[in-house]
Write a structure and sequence with these properties.
By secondary structure, this protein is an alpha/beta fold. The protein is about 50% helix and about 15% strand. The N and C termini lie close together (about 10 Å).
Length: about 230
């Protein structure tokens, strides 16, 4: 492979969204009442529904606003109350517990091996700028050369323009980039169709598998280090 740069999905690959949603549920419980565990389940279901709608292109006009309406309806709360709960959770978060196992070690090692490293994320319940703050608080941001989010670049994965944007920001061609993520449609298929290499993080995989000429399936982020030797 002629890979010189690594692009990584954020939520589900570097950061665990469900841990943050637990905090949001606690804040929501204090603001609107209700059992935190029950609210958490409703928030997660709303998030899943919003992700499906985003993939279908139904939220393109306003992803964050549309997602908030879906999630608020699922939780049975007013959108403004949900906004407040999210803001409080993000503002008070120090990043504890939301970093996916191995993420920091992998970023550090990729930099040591000479790769350019970027984060490429789709937005959902909050703007990309909020996620960038969380990346900073978790210590991941300092190991990323570029951070790009769909609300900032005007394109979302699996659209080709999203992958073109991150490759351009790294100063590389798509053929020199491998994108890593946990979504088969948005990350894996999107990157392959754009012309980049792709690695799907699948915890059910028992070993690193090569899929065709440019695809890989890895059990965890650490599997990335087995396919990317030092430059």
């Amino acid at each position: 492979m002629a890979v010189k740069g690594v692009s990584l999905d954020v939520w589900g690959t570097l950061l665990n969204p469900y841990e943050l949603y637990k905090v949001i549920a606690l804040k929501l419980s204090r603001l609107a009442g209700g059992d935190p565990e029950d609210l958490y389940g409703k928030l997660v279901e709303g998030r899943r529904e919003a992700r499906r709608a985003r993939l279908r292109g139904e939220l393109d006009a306003d992803v964050v606003g549309g997602t908030l309406r879906i999630v608020a309806a699922s939780a049975g709360v007013h959108v403004e109350v949900l906004k407040k709960a999210i803001a409080m959770a993000i503002a008070e978060s120090r990043g504890e517990g939301i970093v996916i196992d191995g993420a920091l070690d992998v970023l550090v090692e990729l930099k040591r091996r000479g790769y350019l490293v970027a984060a490429l994320g789709n937005v959902l319940s909050w703007p990309g700028a909020c996620t960038r703050v969380l990346l900073a608080r978790t210590g991941l941001l300092e190991h990323l050369d570029v951070t790009m989010f769909s609300d900032e670049i005007g394109a979302r994965k699996p659209q080709r323009r999203a992958f073109e944007a991150v490759a351009s920001a790294l100063g590389l061609s798509l053929e020199e980039v491998i994108h890593v993520g946990d979504s088969l449609a948005e990350d894996f298929a999107g990157a392959l169709m754009a012309g980049a290499y792709a690695a799907l993080v699948d915890p059910e995989a028992r070993e690193v598998l090569r899929v065709g000429g440019r695809g890989f399936v890895i059990p965890s982020l650490r599997g990335l280090l087995t396919i990317l030797p030092p430059l």
